[in-house]
Amino acid sequence: MKKVFYSYLYYLIMLMIVCIILASLYFVYAWKQEQPQNQDYYKSFTELKSDTKEHQDWQTNAKTTKNKDILITAIHGGGIEPGTSELAKLISKKGDFNLYSFEGLMKSNNQKLHVTSTRFDDPKLIKLTNKSNESISIHGVQEQKKVVYIGGKDKAMAKSITKALEKEGFNVEKSPNYVNGDSSKNIINQNDTGSGVQLEISTQYRKSFFDNKRLDRQTRENPNDYKQSIYDFAEAVTQGIKEQTTKN
Fold first, then answer.
1. Which ranges in 35-149 belong to alpha helices (H)?
2. Would you tell me the crossing angle of helices 84-95 and 228-245 to the nearest 10 degrees?
3. Residues 205-220: what's their mean pLDDT?
4. Is the dihedral of CA 24, 30, 34, 36 positive or negative?
5. Which residues form a coiled coil (predicted)?
6. Is the distance from CB of 66 to CB of 60 less than 8 angstroms?
7. Long-range Cβ contacts of 210-214 (<8 Å, 24+ apart)
8. Do 19 and 108 share a domain, yes or no?
């Protein structure tokens, strides 16, 4: 009888230990989902501009087209979140969409130029956003798996882009809370409709866009080093946008 009791007690204790471990892993995962990706050095674009030099530390690229309804942005381009401004430009070109990109040009530590989307107050971007019905923002997220997180307030447009990306074989998942793009203060949600879409592309996917999986400036600025995957991605996003806009 004692053997049965001790055996039962043993398995009960082991079960409790497993439950505690699983609960701990869950809480760590949930905590991570809520954490911001980084702490910005500058609290706004205005502050950044006053402390740095345009064309030396950073540059902006803005383009307006006949299609004034759609704006493609990459506010963490260049060396900040490598691959995002290059992709944004391809999408803009393919769809004949308006474009705004902010690109870090520093030889190192471009992360210092990262200003979060809710505080990015460049008047040039605000002007473009105010004239647009739809904003699609391209970002990079530090994930080692191949994933595209999609968020923002425009759920219908997000669904259309998701469908187009998945059709091309890209892995798309719902954004973690810290990059979900749902804030009304997010620049993508400051347009005429008050809603936009935010794409967060993992490091591994962005590396796969370029030869030898390199994200250095020399590689990114040479279209001969672009892989077919970056064109496929840009085409899918373009098609997703167009399919949704034709429904409205």
1. 45-51, 84-95, 123-130
2. 50
3. 96
4. positive
5. none
6. no
7. 210/83
8. no
Q: Are residues 61 and 119 in the same domain?
A: yes
The pTM score is 0.83
Residue 1 has pLDDT above 70, yes or no: no
What residues make up the domain containing 9?
1-34
The amino acid that residue 187 corresponds to is I
The confidence band for 5, taking pLDDT boundaries of 50, 70 and 90, is low
**Rounded-to-integer distance, Cα 82 and Cα 163, Å:** 25
- Taking alpha carbons only, the member of 235, 157, 239 closest to residue 191 is 157
Count the helix, strand and coil residues of the chain and give each as a percent rounded to the nearest 5: 45, 20, 35
Residues, the chain: 248
* Calpha distance 143→121 (Å, rounded): 27
Give the CA dihedral 175, 178, 179, 184, nearest 10 degrees.
110
- Distance from C-alpha of 47 to C-alpha of 39, rounded to nearest angstrom: 15
Considering the domain boundaries, does residue 222 fall inside one? yes
For 67-86, what is each residue's pLDDT tens digit? 778 999 999 999 999 999 99
Tokens of 57: 């530390």
Q: For 81-120, how does the pLDDT look when each residue is reduced to its tens digit (9 = 90+)?
A: 999 999 999 999 999 999 999 999 999 999 999 999 999 9
**CA 226 to CA 220: how far, in whole Å?**
8
Angle formed at CA 16 by CA 11 and CA 18, multiple of 5 degrees: 95
* 205 closest CA partner among 121, 130, 148: 148
